[in-house]
Amino acid sequence: MVKRKIVGAHYGLMDWLVQRITGVVMAVYALIVAVALLMGAGASAASWQAFLSGGPMRFATFIFVVSLCWHAWVGVRDIWMDYVQPAGIRLALHTLTLVALVGYAGWAAQIIWRL
Amino acid sequence: MTTRTLQFKIYRYDPDQDRKPWMQDIAVEVDAADRKLLDAMVKLKAVDDSLAFRRSCREGVCGSDALNINGRNGLACLADLAGFPDGKPIVLRPLPGLPVIRDLIVDMTQFFKQYHSIRPYLINNDPPPERERLQSPEDREELNGLYECILCACCSTACPSFWWNPDKFVGPAGLLAAYRFIADTRDQATGERLDNLEDPYRLFRCHTIMNCIEVCPKGLNPTRAIGKIKDMMVRRAI
Amino acid sequence: MKAKVTVRKFDAVIVGAGGAGLRAAISLSEAGLKTAVLTKVFPTRSHTVAAQGGVAASLGNSEEDHWHWHMYDTVKGSDWLGDQDAIEFMCKKANECVIELEHYGMPFDRLDNGRIYQRPFGGHMSNFGEKPVRRSCAAADRTGHAMLHAMYQRNLKANTQFFVEWMALDLIRDAEGEVLGVTAMEMETGEIFAFHAKATIFATGGSGRIYRSSTNAFINTGDGLGMAARAGIPLEDMEFWQFHPTGVAGAGVLITEGVRGEGGILRNSAGERFMERYAPNAKDLASRDVVSRAMVTEINEGRGCGPNRDFVLLDITHLPPETIMKRLPGIHEIALQFAGVDALKEPIPVVPTCHYQMGGIPTNYHGQVVVPGKRTQNEIVPGFYAAGECACASVHGANRLGTNSLLDLLVFGKSAGETAVDELKKSTQAHKELPADAFDRTQERLHRLNTQKDGASVHETHLAMQRTMQKHAGVFRFADLLQEGVQRIIEVQRDVQRTEIRDKSKVFNTARIEALELDNLIEVAVATMVSAEARKESRGAHVRDDAPDTPEHPNGRDDTHWLKHTLWYKDPDGTGCRLDYKSVTLRPLTVDTIALKKRAY
Predict the structure, then answer these.
(1) Judging by DSSP bridges, how do beta strands C191-202 and C179-186 pair with one another?
(2) Residues A55-98: tens digit of each pLDDT
């Protein structure tokens, strides 16, 4: 195989855009939580649980977790691309990262709907 | 006439003579007629003719004498000697991130390869009209801040993303040039140009660190141009 | 030890990648010929990049204009020393060449109707010298930069093969006088190559570095002229040097004439607009030699500004700031950087500064190098072409008009390229064999430089040359100073023949390059001084104290004896030189001769 640096993968815009959109989603969620905390939602474990177990809030938290994982995927993938040159190892790391992030998202969903 | 002695610390490496690079301590006397760092360097070369650096126009339009001056990229011919404090040596190094050929001369092949990769020429496949292609003053104004680039490489060699992926990331200078053609109403290859940059490395390695703006001797803003390219890609995709 | 020489074969070799070289390269590459472009610096670093004000073409975008008017202005500007066939050719071709550039992508400024913006410039008038006309096509005050980049870009599209940071050293010419290529040094490795070609095109630019105070870049060392002179080719009209009126005092950096085109005014210490006295009609937009002499006269008569009364002021403070920032942004930047003044609020200190060499390697308007021969005074040197500032077509004669230099390099770069294409396509012959002594001169020069002991310093010798030129062949010339100058410059030449460098490294040895450049500069300096001393009249940029303005000889011009081109030859043994003359071509191609008359603005 030729040992040439190859570029021109014809992707990148979606990831860049997703990182921006998920960033905004996370910022909005953080704002909601901050406001809730100011209004005393974190005063006791019970009030905190009540706040998080509301239907809309469950949904918002879930979206937040998905955003976080997706955002992390692009960032971590970029790190592997910058620092890990052998294609095999890089692919393995990408797979591991994906598996881990999907796992975390599933696990987080379980927790959210157990509340 | 008032004179002043300037102390220098200069990166020296001649692969023909030196086993490894070394820093030379050298001083030179300058007078009131010597305004810019380049004037002092020309005097230095009269003292030690082995000091190698590029220079040509000495007025900041040819882009030959880009150096790392006291840790910051810039043109020697635009750096005011009056701006250097007394008692502290002026440290001169070659532009970072490119292979050194000798002393302050770097191998710019990689930099120009990236510039060439964006197809830096007008593409218009219509048969040329007899007279000029018309362009309104407003459309022409879009090219201001883009076409003035002198390819000195101060920006790209100040960019950590370029240091890390000089073979894959186009770099601020190349991307500025790319947008210069995208923004030109006479160019018909906008789609191909955007396709050419749709890549996780070529364009999207720009993490808006903005060192490029900081060092550009012509006061240009590659980050803004890169932002506009991304903006056009988004508008095309959605 | 003789340097090893590797031979490479091309159809054509172009030396220099400034405007003229790049334009010629476009023609050759697009014709599919195997072309090598050698250049000391990356193409966009060539000095064309520093041109500011514009390129002349009678497009008539803002007002009525005609190539014939442009031709008249150019002949008048040249003080009738320009060849009228070449001038007609250039002025007629101007529109085509500028439109072509626009099609290459050059970002010209625009008028409201979308056409190329044009501004007035010195010496360019409508209706045969009546009043200033807008003829200079401009991209702000960065026209040269925009043009050079556009042409480099077009060459990328045409896949031109560049040899970047290669310095041509000597011309290869065989016993029949035919030119077969050049020897050159790869600067990065110090290795010597020969470029064996059927066509050799010189586009090496000017040599303004012979003067101490110059707007020219460090690289403008007359390499083409030096190479040609050493190979027995004469240099034409070398006494004519243009001193640009507005170089920044002290720094020498150019301030475009476009500043005056946009309404800038020159003032003396009394604040007077003194050009009204010297050129009542064109005022600040008179021809460059006229303005420069007026400025020096003001300074000499004690009306200069500053503590030493040694400069005058270029004032644009009355212009709207928007105009300055839109049309002259680069000048605002230069004034701030090199004069420390904000041009919006304060005038800029300026002095006449060496800017352009009107003379050069003699060519016809096809870009072919011509020398006096047995049959005619303009016999073609086979295989040899020249264009741009290094060539003398001659369109500028005794004084060049602003914006005609960019036009010159476009028109003659193109015609040299196209003539070479035609000649190459006509001939089916293989490369003519290189003579046995093809590399001798180069090897001798390098050997001498590598082995010189107890020699002269390159830096000091260079300075001595520059000071001699500045003192003895400046804006005004004096018979006694010129005579003395000839002696002085020959003394400097002796030192140049024994320069010594301490750095002997093979890798990017800039000390060696500077020494080799000085070999070329000194040929130009000697040619200038000797030619100037010999021309006993005042004409254009060459004004002598012993040839004053008289009714018999208006402006000191003596058409009876001196309406002729100087040809300076270097002796083959390298120690002496001789002068010859040839007549000026007064007959244009299609129109009537523009008759001799007194030059006044």
Answers:
(1) antiparallel
(2) 899 999 999 999 999 999 999 999 999 999 999 999 999 999 99
